[in-house]
Amino acid sequence: MARRTVVLMPGDGIGPKVLEQALRVLDAISFDADYVHADVGWACWVNEGDALPERTIHLLAEHKLGLFGAITSKPKVQAALELRPELKGQGLSYSSPIVRMRQLFDLDVCVRPCRSFPGNPLNFVRRAPGGGVEEPQVDVVIFRQNTEGLYAGVEWTDPPAEVRQSLALHPKFKPFAAVSGRDIALSVRVITRRACERIARAAFLHAERHGCRSVTVCEKPNVVRETSGLMEEAARQVAVECPGIELCSTNIDAQMMWLTKNPEECGVIVATNLFGDILSDAFAGLVGGLGFACSGNIGDQAAVFEPTHGSAPKYAALEPQIANPIAMILSASMLLDHVSEGEKAMRVRDAVARVVAEGKVRTYDMLRLPGGATAVAQGAASTEQMADAIIAAL
Ligand code: NAI
Ligand code: MG
Questions:
Q1: Rounded to the nearest whole angstrom, what is the distance from the C-alpha of residue 281 to the centroid of ligand 2?
Q2: Measured between alpha carbons, how far is 35 from 352 in angstroms, rounded to an integer?
């Protein structure tokens, strides 16, 4: 197997800490790769006025494979205030480096598996029909369109006259036409057939490969008729190509209600950007939350894997570190799958499963302790100890 180069983007806060542990796990299974460091995140914004510097974009363009820790981002006004004095007043405007990276490299397929590990004290439980509790096994993979929809960034506060004129062509804009200036804001939900077909195809392919009988498209076509309608239509089209797999359809609001009723009945779900984001956070909550939520951003040319959690700045300076590295480690296992190292990926997931099932080593979140300096003294494993345990279980 050819050696690969993985671009490491540690980012801010706990990002570098969890990434460091994921690399130890990759080394422990002898993943054959070179690594290059790439800057991204808040320090880049403050010092260079760009949270995703050109040199990082070049590295990703060259190597096409990345592991991302987490970044800190802040609202526009505060971001401008924290810029280095020499950069202030130059009209620089903060934008999320992750969203930009996804769009720049067309990482349009976001894959977010949410699987419960038996023995995880954070697993969802429900009341059993005859009393007592039952713990359904959740095994859902969410395919979220990653570059369009409400995250496309086509938005205005106080939209320009031309935009207002165009909107006036739509009869339903009438009640809003009189709202002036900064009292009106617009975010455009841009959806293309190509992107819908790509995300639906990725979901169906996954279902085919993993023996799932159905794919569920989760939208709101009865109300958001045009854009959700296009997603549904594209999913139906793709379903024709995969005759063995049934296409089901749910509405996002109803799906959120059913989530805790029968989560074990969900398998592969496909959705547009915002709905997919909401779905994947909700399902992640059933299987352990942010400490377990891994993801891949996959395009035709490049792929970047990252935990879905942020930089948890309040824990960044703790010594020892307390963040749960499992989300990052599972993200690294997704990278292994992506580069056809499925056997190694499986070994990593099995090792995580064993450590969770054994229950001897648990980070503060798994023990439901308050995060902070006292967590380790109260019995929580540190970030490093959790990685040690996973490495020992390999
Ligand atoms: P966050 O995900 O950083 O943290 C929320 C809370 O979840 C933390 O206080 C912590 O209690 C817990 N948590 C997060 N990761 C954990 C882990 N690995 N193990 C155990 N507990 C964990 O979200 P928050 O506080 O809303 O945002 C902090 C910063 O991160 C912000 O600047 C935000 O913009 C950014 N962010 C970045 C993301 C990314 O890099 N992909 C995603 C979400 C937020
Ligand atoms: Mg989210």
A1: 6
A2: 23
pLDDT at 264: 87
Domain covering 1-108+289-394 assigned CATH 3.40.718.10 in the classification: yes
Token reading at 85: 């004095």
Predicted local confidence at residue 1, as pLDDT = 56
Which residue bears the tokens 């820790």? 69
The first and second tokens of residue 94, run together, are 């903060």
Per residue in 58-117, pLDDT tens? 999 999 999 999 999 998 889 999 999 999 999 999 989 999 999 999 999 999 999 999
C-alpha 354/C-alpha 328 separation (Å) is 17
What CATH number does the domain located at 124-153+188-286 have? 3.40.718.10
Contact assessment for residue 296 and residue 110, using Cβ atoms and an 8 Å cutoff: yes
Which of 309, 314, 322, 363 should be mutated for ligand 1, with most atoms under 8 A from CB?
Answer: 309
Closest CA to 196 of 118, 275, 120: 275
